[in-house]
Amino acid sequence: MSRGSDDSPVELLREVERRSRRRAAPLPKQEDVRDQWSGIGFRVGDLRVVAALGEVTEILALPVLTRVPGAKSWVLGIANVRGNLLPIMDLDGYLHGRRTGITKRSRVLVINRRGVYAGLLVDEVLALRHFEEDDKAADIPEADPAVRPYLDRGYISGDESWPVFSVRRLAESPLFLQVAV
User: Fold this and answer.
1) CATH of the domain at 121
2) What is the strand order of the sheet 36-44 is part of?
3) Cα(80)–Cα(63) distance, integer angstroms
């Protein structure tokens, strides 16, 4: 594009457009995009479940705890996490009355749901899981009676069943909210 005295601004713009079109990459092929549901897989005892990604605020290693007198046995204590006091609850202790054995794989899932800010101690965080709508189970997968009230639905991936643990249901449960002995 030579800039001469008779080149009008409109002609210059047309030349820029022609060059741009010659160098432009074609649009990618349109692919079939499927809706996916994403969650965090974790283990509580022998049970593997998944919680909605939006229901877990953070995943932590077990912080230093200060015991809370007069609290139920599944209330492990209070931790100072970046200046915020975080109550830590043993999820297996709450559900089944047995303490979670602390290992290097133990993690705390931080939840913040309708004023319930707490950490849930779990045996292990497994992975971020993605499921397509076709993976949705027709029925909620089998689970013991203590866990069933907190299951929302389930997904099937290969030969694995993944019940969806509802943090919302847990945070709204009067039993979970009653932490004093």
Assistant:
1) 2.40.50.180
2) 124-132, 36-44, 47-52, 160-165, 151-157
3) 8
Q: How far apart are CA 135 and CA 129, in angstroms?
A: 12
Residue type (1 letter), 104: K
**Claim: this prediction has a pTM higher than 0.85:** no
pLDDT at 147: 96
The count of structural domains within the chain is 1
Q: What angle do CA 143, 148, 152 make, to 5 degrees?
A: 110
Query: Is 69 inside any structural domain?
Result: yes
Q: Which two tokens stand for residue 102?
A: 């602390």
- As given in the structure block, the two tokens for residue 128 are 């971020």
Q: Average pLDDT for consecutive 10-residue bins of the chain (181 residues)? A: 65 82 75 83 96 97 97 98 97 97 97 95 97 91 90 93 96 96 91
Report the alpha-carbon distance of residue 162 to residue 16 in Å, rounded: 55
Could you identify the residue written with the tokens 């299951």?
A: 151
At residue 76, the pLDDT reads 98
What does the DSSP assignment read for 36-53? EEEEEEEEETTEEEEEEG
Note down the domain range covering 157.
36-177
Q: Is 92 helix (H, G, I), strand (E, B) or coil?
A: helix
Find the helix or strand (DSSP H, E) in which 14 lies. helix 9-23
Q: Judge whether 31 lies within some domain.
A: no
